[in-house]
């Protein structure tokens, strides 16, 4: 962290990402975990292990089954549900013998009519089937109105008792953007022209999750890693054009598909085929392979080919040396 200082600029690039949006729902900030940063993910992991530990002592249990409430069935909520079942199986093999496959109860609560509302129907259906096969209780069309100590309350007056809650129901831009005097959308994201310049100041470029960028069909570019990546490429070209007094081109988002990983159980997704943008449904080993490759591609973009190859090698070795789960 640097000390406070003032820097003058000719051109400003903003890429501050996003944070979870609790939409002002009472009790969420106090009783839910968020997964916006590695520190928050670590805090959740710590709390989760303590809850599993408490559950392994029958006298300290709050409910007959260890119950986790996850609000939001987007990719984060869906993937986390499957990961929790995977973790409970692993803990059993680590000596938490009270932890059996039916000891965990995950409630995945979503206001939209289906899980993964932004994805194609075929993926939604396959993912939902797999989640239910694992034992996840999927509540769709269910809006959470408040969260209390030990319970999630829904608009249809259900009170779902829980040991642990995670909020993954949407995003908004960081608070700092409110003080910049730029036009924002209702999720506090900075409104930009298709060229990625703020609608208020052509010297301010904004991209990634914190930009509210329109597409030709009137919809907004979704807050996803592939959108941020594509915008970075367009932004680089527009900056060069700007410095050379050339013409800035509009950003066009191309959906390359989506992949959902359900821990070691399954992976499901679709890939877009060429210019026709017809989607190819994939699942099983092929989807797992593409999911892992995508992760390595991101690593390569950051670290370069040589370092990524070394990371790949060390990850391969660690699979034999290190335990799959850190218990402390
Ligand atoms: C748990 C989780 C899982 C996800 N999974 C997927 C996925 O599978 N596929 C997918 O496409 N997308 C996924 N996303 C979304 C994806 O991470 C984002 O769309 C993407 O990271 C956006 O990139 P960005 O550069 O806009 O923001 P970020 O990657 O969030 O980067 C913004 C950076 O700005 C820093 N920052 C913020 N405020 C300040 C400040 N005031 N001063 C200085 N620095 C600041 C932040 O610390 C952060 O490092 C996931 C998100 C989460 C939270």
TrEMBL record:
UniProt-listed InterPro entries: FAD/NAD-bd_sf, FAD/NAD-binding_dom, NADH-Q_oxidoreductase
Keyword field: FAD, Flavoprotein, Oxidoreductase
EC number: 1.6.99.3
Domain of life: Bacteria
Residues spanning the membrane: none
Sequence ranges assigned to domain FAD/NAD(P)-binding in this UniProt record: 5-232
GO biological process: aerobic electron transport chain
Cofactor annotation: FAD
EC main group: oxidoreductase
PANTHER family per record: 64 KDA MITOCHONDRIAL NADH DEHYDROGENASE (EUROFUNG), APOPTOSIS-INDUCING FACTOR 1
Official protein name in the record: NADH dehydrogenase
Source species of the chain: Halomonas chromatireducens
